[in-house]
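Data card: per-record layout.
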Amino acid sequence: MSETGFTQQLAFVVAQRREDEATVLAQAVREGIHALYREVLIEAYLLGQVPREMVLKELGPERLEEIEYQRDALQRDVAWGLKNA
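The structure for this 85-residue chain is written out next.
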């Protein structure tokens, strides 16, 4: 993790973007919520709590394909490991 503190990081972004601190913080909150939403949506899909169509609509076909590929690869690895244990 970076050794630069939050205050220093915020000041740097504010200076580089030439925007006021409130604008930068609002954008950071929006982007953070968006990232958390995607993370929780994927988790809920993998747990069978939301339909595939919702993930397809929200994340797009390429991301959904990647998620399903990773899930399937993990399942194959676990099956292989259990078989060879």
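Known properties of this structure: Helices lie at 6-17, 21-46, 52-59, 61-83. The two ends are 37 Å apart (CA to CA).

See the next section for split statistics.
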